[in-house]
Amino acid sequence: MTLNITFVKLGTNSENAIFGDLTLLDGTTVIQTSSAFSGGGSYNPLDDGNYRLRLDIRGEEDTNEVNEDGTLKPFYGIQKVSDHIPSDQGPLDGQYEWGSIRARLNPTGGNTDHGDYIHGKKRTKDWTHGCICDRSEVILNYLWNLASPPIGADVVVSGGANFDLETLVKKNIAKKVVSTRSRRYSKGITSKSPW
Q1: What is the 3-state secondary structure (H, E, C) of the chain?
Q2: Which of 51, 95, 152, 158 is 20 to 30 A off residue 108, Cα-Cα?
Q3: Which tens digits make up the pLDDT trace of 21-42?
Q4: Domain 3-168: what homologous superfamily?
Q5: Which residue, 48, 51, 52, 50, is CA-closest to 158?
Q6: What are 125-148's pLDDT values in tens digits?
């Protein structure tokens, strides 16, 4: 069994996330397909490139841990996510952002590791912090339920060259503020005093 996953970026949704086709293959045979999205809001989509899911590192819900800021701690394989994770701030519904299962996209070939996953999601808005969201979780559930999973599955993300991120991701957009000092110098006032 040689598992591969492709995410081909096709367009944008109402949240400015990139949507596309997520496909699981065994060699050249298509096993599962699903619609997915990445980025949106003020977040970049997952970078085009090569990643690897570690299917030999498996975690049940009892492996869920929460950071001090209330986010779920990293897990470098495939992991079930609970809707009731104990934390210092009270129970966390990990499925709100992650769905019931997530698999770490470990970069290969020199890609930067941004801590991204393929995951589901309960939250209704169709954007992510850069991960790939497959709400249906059909591919994740297939991978989780394999009787004898391979060590990993390669993931290829493509299609990003078709989109202008500067147009999609509205960051740091504000009216330019000019300081008093800048205005004084632009009017030709050049005294040594700053004001």
Answers
A1: CCEEEEEEEEEECCCCCEEEEEEEEECCEEEEEEEEEECECCECCCCCEEEEEECCCEECHHHCCECCCCCECCCCCEEECCCCECCCCCCECCHHHHCCEEEECEECCCCCCCCCEEECCCCCCCCCCCCEECCCCHHHHHHHCCCCCCCEEEEEEECHHHCCHHHHCCCCCCCCCCCHHHHHHHCCCCCCCCC
A2: 95
A3: 999 999 999 999 999 999 998 8
A4: L,D-transpeptidase catalytic domain-like (2.40.440.10)
A5: 48
A6: 899 999 999 999 999 999 999 999
Residue position matching structure tokens 């000092």: 181
Q: Are 80 and 60 in contact (CB under 8 A)?
A: yes
Tokens of 92: 């966390």
